[in-house]
Amino acid sequence: MMHNIFLWFLMLVINFSCILFAYKKFGKIGLYIWVPISTILANVQVVMLVNLFGMEATLGNILYAGGFLVTDILSENHGKKAATTAVKIGFFSLIATTLIMQCAIHFTPLEAGVELFDSVKNIFSLLPRLAVASLIAYLISQFHDVWLYEKIREKFPAKKHIWLRNNGSTMVSQLLDNAVFTTIAFYGVYPIDIMINIFISTYIIKFIVALCDTPFIYIADKLFRDKKIPENI
């Protein structure tokens, strides 16, 4: 299990470091670019079940949570409109990927490549209910994150309270995301007690990720204040 935890933290650092690199190299556009990368990869990794911290979890939680860090950076440094645009880009990328891959997996493969074709098909042949649950949960939670970040900033506008805006908006929004996804995806499929276990274990992992992204939003803010973020490409 320690092997999985080490790799999980390594992937977490790589994920957040890539966000900072994209921001420093390409500015606001870099964060817009990262949004579809993270949302698509998160939906691929969601089928990869592992044991983390003594719980069953999917690997997609880190990448998915990275989307909240992106919108928080945009809210902090570029305003609510920029963060809202990122949410719309992510939602569009999810819809486009779902539609295109649903077409792709129904092709008839060559016999020589049927094994690889089936592997890809297993990843993208999500049940419509899960796809709908993911899309609705993403849209509601991400817009809520942008809204709540601004509300907290109105009450606590000082830079020293970035941690409060970041963690407060992300943790509440991920709680909402978890509730919406679990209800739509699993209600009537699993007993209530199993649904509650899925909800709790998933949120604990997302909670840990939210705590870990705090230093990265401070780094992003410092880069912005030091004028090291390009305005135009």
Task: Characterise the protein shown here.
The structure is a single chain. Strands 1-2 form a two-stranded antiparallel ribbon. It has nine helices and two strands. The mean pLDDT is 89. Strand 1 and strand 2 form a beta hairpin. The radius of gyration is 18 Å and the shape is globular. The protein has 233 residues and is mainly α.
What keywords describe this structure?
233 residues, mainly alpha, two-stranded antiparallel sheet, 9 helices, 3% strand, globular
Average pLDDT for all residues? 89
Largest sheet: 2 strands, antiparallel
Estimate percent helicity.
Answer: over 70%
Rg (C-alpha, Å) = 18 Å
State the total count of DSSP E strands.
2
Spatial gap, N to C terminus: 44 Å
H/E series: HHEEHHHHHHH
Strand percentage lies at under 5%
Morphology call: globular
Helix/strand structural class = mainly alpha
Taking strands numbered 1, 2, ... along the chain, how are they ordered across the largest sheet? 1-2
In DSSP terms (H or I, runs of 4 or more residues), the helix count works out at 9
Q: Indicate the low-confidence ranges by residue numbers.
A: none
Summarize the structure.
The chain is mainly α and 233 residues long. The chain has helices at residues 2-26, 28-45, 60-78, 80-104, 114-124, 128-155, 162-186, 192-212, 214-225; strands at residues 49-52, 55-58.
Give the helix/strand layout.
Elements: H1 2-26, H2 28-45, E1 49-52, E2 55-58, H3 60-78, H4 80-104, H5 114-124, H6 128-155, H7 162-186, H8 192-212, H9 214-225
Antiparallel strand pairs: 1-2
Helix pairs in contact: 1-2, 1-3, 1-9, 2-3, 2-4, 3-4, 3-6, 3-7, 3-8, 3-9, 4-6, 6-7, 7-8, 7-9
